[in-house]
Amino acid sequence: METISQFLILAIIFCNFFLLFSHSTKRLVDLAAIQGVLAAFLPLLNSREFFFEPFIFALIVIILKGFFFPSILKKIIVKNSAYEEKRREYYGHISWSMYLLIFFVSVWLSTRLNFDVETSAWILPASFMTIFCGFLTIILKSQTVSQITGYIVLENGIYCFGTAIFIHQPLMVEAAILLDIFVAIFVMGMAVFHIGREFKDSDSDSLGELREVFEEEAQK
Amino acid sequence: MENIKLFLQAVIILFAAPILPGIINRVKAFFGGRQGRNIFQLYFDIYKLFNKGIVYSNTTTLIFRIAAPAMAALSCIAALIMPFGGQSGLLSFSGDFILIVYLLALSRFLLIISAMDTGSPFEGMGASREAQFAVFAEPVFFMSILTLSKITGESSVHGIFSKLSPVLWVENAPVLFLIVLSLFIVMLCETSRVPFDDPDTHLELTMIHEVMVLDNSGPDLGLIFYASAIKLWILGSFVSAIIMPRHSEIFWLDSLIYISGLAIVAISAGVVESVMARVRLLRVPQFLLAAFSVAIMAFVFQSLKG
Fold this sequence. Notes:
Chain A is mainly alpha-helical. Chain A contains eight helices and no strands. The relative contact order of chain B is 0.17.
C-alpha cells in the first residue's frame, strides 16, 4: 500500500509541475480536479481497516473536486472565452526557479517539523509543494478562472497536509472546510461570470487597466 | 572461461550497437504506416562510408582530422566499462560511471571543436547549442546515477547493475520510476533524438547534432555514426538495467534479457519520436531542467526514506 501511496503522491507533485507550466485554462482546471481526486484516495490507502465515514467523505470530495468544481469553472471559461493564459517569454524561467525553490523549501520545512507522520514521509513535502503551487498559480496566472483554480490547488495541499497528520480527521472539521471552499468557488464563479459578461474579458491584467481608466476619469 | 566471456561481451557491444538506431527507425516507420529501412541499415551505411574517400575543407586543421576517430575510440572505451549480461565490464572499477560521463563529454568536446574548426558559422551555431544542452543534461545523469548508487550502496556500474533486482523495485518503485524517467530524457537529449533534435533533418536552422557533421565525409562520417550508436547503447543500458533487472547467473540468459531490455528502450525511443513533435529550441533547456527536477526529487525522496 505504501508504494501505491508514494505513486499517488508523485502524481500529485507532477500535477503541481504541469499546473505551473500550462497555459490552457481548461487544462489547469483538469489538473486541479485530478489532483483533488488523487488526494481524496490518500486517506483510504493509509487506513489499515475499513471505515465507513472516510469512504463516504472521500466520495463527496471526489464528486465536488473531480466533477462539480470543474464543471462550474469550465462553464465560466466558455462563457468568458478565457481559454488561454497570456504567454510571456520570461514565464518559463520564473516558473522553473520558483518550482525548484518551493521544492527545496518544502523538503526543508518537512524535515524541520517533527510531526509523527502516519503515512509516507513524502506526503509532507508534497503537501507543502501543493500549497505553494496554489499560491504561485494565484500570483502568476492572469485569468481569474486560473486564480480560482489556484485556490482549489491550495485547498488540495491543505487536505494532503491533514492526511499526513491524521488519518481520521474529525468529520465536522473536514465538512466545514469542504463547505467553505464550495461556497468560495460558487461565489467566485458567479463574480467572474458577471465580470466577464459586463466587460467581455476576465483577465485580471485587463481589470487593472480598467481601474486606471476610472482613476483617470475621476481625476478629470 | 571468464576471459572468453569478457572478450565475447566486448565484441557483442561493439558489433551490436548500430542495430539500436535501426530498431528506432523501424518503429518510426511502423507508426508512419511505412515498411521502413532495413533494421541493419546503419551497418550498410557505415560500410559504404568506409569504402569512400575523405574530402577535407582547406580551412580545417589537424583537430578536424583527428576528431572523428578519437570520438569513436572514446565511445568504445566507455562501452567497454559497461557490464553485460550480469558480468562486469572489461574496465570495471569503483566510480567508473564518472569516467563514462567524462569520456562521453570529451567525445562531445572533440565534435564541438571540430565543427568550429571548419569556420562555418552554421556549424558553430550547432556547436554552441550542443554545448548548451550538455550543460543541462550532465547534472541530470550524475544525479540519477548518484541516487542509484545510494539505493544499491555500490559505486561502480557493475555493482549498481548487479544489485538491481525485482525486490529493489518492490521497495523503491517510485524512486526507480523517477530515475528511469530522467535517464530516458537524458538518453534522448544526448543521442540527439526527438523531442530535442531530429536526426533526420538536414539543412535546417533548428538542427543541432546533424549540423556539426555537415563537413565530415567518408570514413570520418561513418565513425561519427558509429560513435553515436555506441553512445545510444551506453545510455540505453542504464535504463535497460533498471527496467529489466536480471540475476539468473546464466550468462546467455542474462545476456538475452540485457539485449531485450535495450531493444525495449529503443522501441520506446521510437514511440516517443513518433508521437511527439520536436520542442522549440528555446524550450529545450526547460525540458532538461524538468528532467533535473525529477532527478533531484528522486534523490531527495530516497534520502527522506533513509
